[in-house]
Structure to design on (374 residues):
């Protein structure tokens, strides 16, 4: 019998199960035993020719024809481990294939008389990303992937922002016009009602749409929307008013210089101190590329969106702010969350006005948690 060719050796540890092929049968090693090389040789030289070196014997384990309960348990545990590893490999391959198929689609849509470029990724309920000033749809590079795991994410570049046509002589970048753009894009794509995530000027745009056409929107997550009118007298007198006047004076000088980098640095030093200096070359280039559109955003007249306007909006809304942002922007977020019918506030520690970039993971989770409830 095969088991007669085995003798105990407690010093050996099982490492793997290998198979030694021979004419009649296969012999397998078990825990705590090794082949008796002399008896193997004397039994059949057809199976093994020459002396077996110890290293080879220790690598090739044999299982006796009669398996006791302990050996069976050892073999079963190894089999279970192998199946677990195979299952893990299948899961990894499936995830890799799914990720490779989740490609971002680039599209164009004509709306409100202009051509808008957008990115489209994922499937499910539509979620539209509306970027802020001095940026474009690339602002959402840290959001598109994670959010598209549950939603069809559409990030478009607002008028005059890259890669759309730059502003011309008669460019109109008023907030009302940009709200019309968003309404027209939602209608043209046939995706109403949508979840909206808006940042800064993009958040202000979303609020105007929610006020005029609430039927187009399911929920809103707004990162420090630029609607200073909600502050009322607080925004016209006192420290916050002084801060606003200082920022406008600094930006007026920066725009007059015609130096894109100075424009970006002046603005970022106020709303996201230190972030431009540590930004990647790609982010810096995005900011600098959009300074012409930013100037239009900054200087175009805006309707005074007030707390009374906000009280008319019944869309469930989450307002996000960062405690390293400008004091005025933080205060706007706090007051707006109180004015909205269904408003709530989340404050992200150590985040700046660019919170979706400098604290992307926390921001993304806040979006998923809030939108997932509606």
């Amino acid at each position: 019998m095969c088991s007669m060719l085995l003798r105990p050796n407690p010093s050996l540890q099982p490492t793997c199960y290998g198979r030694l092929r021979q004419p009649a049968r296969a012999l397998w090693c078990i825990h705590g035993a090794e082949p008796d090389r002399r008896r193997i040789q004397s039994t059949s030289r057809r199976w093994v020719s020459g002396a077996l070196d110890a290293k080879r014997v220790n690598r090739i384990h044999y299982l006796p024809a009669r398996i006791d309960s302990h050996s069976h348990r050892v073999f079963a545990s190894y089999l279970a481990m192998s199946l677990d590893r195979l299952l893990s490999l299948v899961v990894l391959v499936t995830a890799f294939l799914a990720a490779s198929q989740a490609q971002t689609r680039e599209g164009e849509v004509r709306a409100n008389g202009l051509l808008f470029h957008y990115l489209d990724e994922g499937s499910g309920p539509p979620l539209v990303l509306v970027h802020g000033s001095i940026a474009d749809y690339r602002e959402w590079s840290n959001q598109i992937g994670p959010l598209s795991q549950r939603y069809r994410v559409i990030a478009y570049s607002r008028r005059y922002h890259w890669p759309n046509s730059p502003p011309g002589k008669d460019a109109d970048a008023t907030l009302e016009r940009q709200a019309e753009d968003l309404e027209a894009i939602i209608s043209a794509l046939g995706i109403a009602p949508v979840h909206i995530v808006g940042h800064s000027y993009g958040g202000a745009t979303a609020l105007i749409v929610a006020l005029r056409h609430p039927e187009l929107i399911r929920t809103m997550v707004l990162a420090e929307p630029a609607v200073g009118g909600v502050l009322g007298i607080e925004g016209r007198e006192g420290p916050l008013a002084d801060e606003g006047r200082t920022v406008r004076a600094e930006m007026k000088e920066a725009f007059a210089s015609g130096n894109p980098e100075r424009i970006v640095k002046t603005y970022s030093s106020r709303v996201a101190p230190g972030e431009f200096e540590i930004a990647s070359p790609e982010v810096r280039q995005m900011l600098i590329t959009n300074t012409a559109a930013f100037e239009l955003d900054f200087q175009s007249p805006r309707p005074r969106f007030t707390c009374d306007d906000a009280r008319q909006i019944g869309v469930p809304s989450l307002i996000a702010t960062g405690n390293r942002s400008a004091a005025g922007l933080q205060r706007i977020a706090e007051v707006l969350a109180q004015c909205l019918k269904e408003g709530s506030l989340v404050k992200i520690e150590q985040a700046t006005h660019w919170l979706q970039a400098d604290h992307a993971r926390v921001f993304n989770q806040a979006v998923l948690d809030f939108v997932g409830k509606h």
Observations:
- The chain has a mean pLDDT of 82.
- Strands lie at 6-8, 33-35, 105-111, 114-121, 126-130, 152-156, 194-199, 217-223, 317-322, 343-348.
- Residues 69-101 form the longest helix (33 residues).
- DSSP finds 15 helices and ten strands in the chain.
